[in-house]
Design brief:
mainly alpha; Tetracycline Repressor, domain 2; two-stranded antiparallel ribbon; 71% helix; transcription cis-regulatory region binding; Homeodomain-like_sf; transcription regulation; TetR_C; DNA-binding transcription factor activity
């Protein structure tokens, strides 16, 4: 865009907000593309900046590390969820356990999500981002349903909500990331049944 000044066409300065939005979009697109093409370990902040056509300082102004930007790019590109939040506690817990299979085993983004979980073990920024933006938003509705079940007398009042959630999701993560044993609907149902029995 330009304007006339003393008879000359003078370029208008770029809108800073629009320029920032375009840079942000270019960075997320670049980070996700490099992640898919080369794997998480091969992604660098310099590579993202070069692919996006921005300076490294622009990345560090918005994200503290490659883990943070790659994970935001993943969230931006991969549509997963939400899980059902209706019904009694048993139904919600079972829906979330089956949703786990959809996310990590059957879903298109599952292999990349597993790679991010592995990388988070040595990347504090990525671990923090995943805890705050991925795991906690998915645990919160189940935690609330459990507390409502406690108030209704369906779950023992002395049960700690987060420990109960760990009883369900820890075995699923163990099979996913460690043992390599079958992880299917039958196993998820068995874990949920054992957990429900322990909580009543």
């Amino acid at each position: 865009m330009s304007r006339l000044f003393l008879g000359y066409s003078v370029p208008m300065p770029a809108d800073p907000a629009r320029r920032s939005q375009e840079s942000w979009r270019a960075i997320l697109d670049a980070a996700y593309a490099l992640f898919v093409e080369n794997g998480y370990q091969s992604v660098t902040m310099g590579g993202i900046a070069a692919r996006a056509g921005v300076g490294r300082q622009t990345l560090y102004r918005w994200w503290p590390s490659k883990g943070a930007v790659v994970f935001e790019a993943f969230l931006d590109k991969v549509s997963i969820g939400p899980f059902p939040a209706d019904g009694d506690f048993a139904a919600i817990l079972r829906a979330y356990a089956h949703g786990f299979l959809t996310l990590y085993v059957d879903g298109a983004g599952g292999s990349r999500l597993r790679e991010l979980i592995g990388a988070a073990q040595t990347d504090p920024d990525l671990a923090r981002a995943m805890a705050e933006q991925w795991f906690e938003p998915r645990r919160a509705p189940v935690r609330q349903a459990l507390r409502e079940a406690q108030q209704a007398g369906a779950v023992r009042a002395d049960v700690d909500a987060d420990t109960a959630l760990d009883l369900v999701f820890a075995p699923l993560h163990y099979r996913l990331l460690v043992s390599g044993q079958p992880l299917d609907a039958a196993y998820a149902d068995a874990v949920v049944d054992l957990c429900l029995h322990a909580l009543r």
